[in-house]
Amino acid sequence: MGFLLYSKGSIVVVTADVKVAVKNKVPLVRSLTLNWLTFFIETNNKATILKMHKDYVPIFLESLNDGTPEVRDAAFAALAAIAKMVGMRPLERSLEKLDDVRKKKLSDMIGNGEASTSGSDE
Where does each HEAT repeat begin and end (predicted)? Predict the structure, then answer.
């Protein structure tokens, strides 16, 4: 679990590693990377998330097109976590590109408090 060490440092430093991980051929690697980012977002402060969101929102948006449902769900959860932390205003321009179905799903996740991924049922 070495990746948890990053949560105490700067998330911006690992952007290149994250970009590689979300392109990995193994879907579990992609979804776990996005799940970890969601955890990071949910457990940090607003100032930190405002600094990092511009680098990561495009990664999350691209992951919404993944062929694996778990990866798409993890990307939605990460976007919802950002929106809950910093509000929708900083995301408006990026989210304009989403189709209506995806906008509705994201809106529902934000409204229902479902920022955590569906795979976290314990």
Answer: 56-94
pLDDT digits (tens, 9 = 90+) for 75-93: 999 999 999 988 888 888 8
The answer to whether 91 and 79 are in contact (CB under 8 A) is yes
Q: pLDDT tens digit string along 42-67?
A: 998 888 888 888 889 999 999 999 99
Beta carbons of 31 and 74 less than 8 angstroms apart: yes
Quote the CA–CA distance of 20 and 50 in Å, as a whole number.
22
Q: What phi, psi does 60 have (nearest 5°)?
A: -65, -40
Look up residue 77 and give its DSSP letter: H
Please say whether the beta carbons of 81 and 89 come within 8 A: no
For the entire predicted model, the pTM comes to 0.78
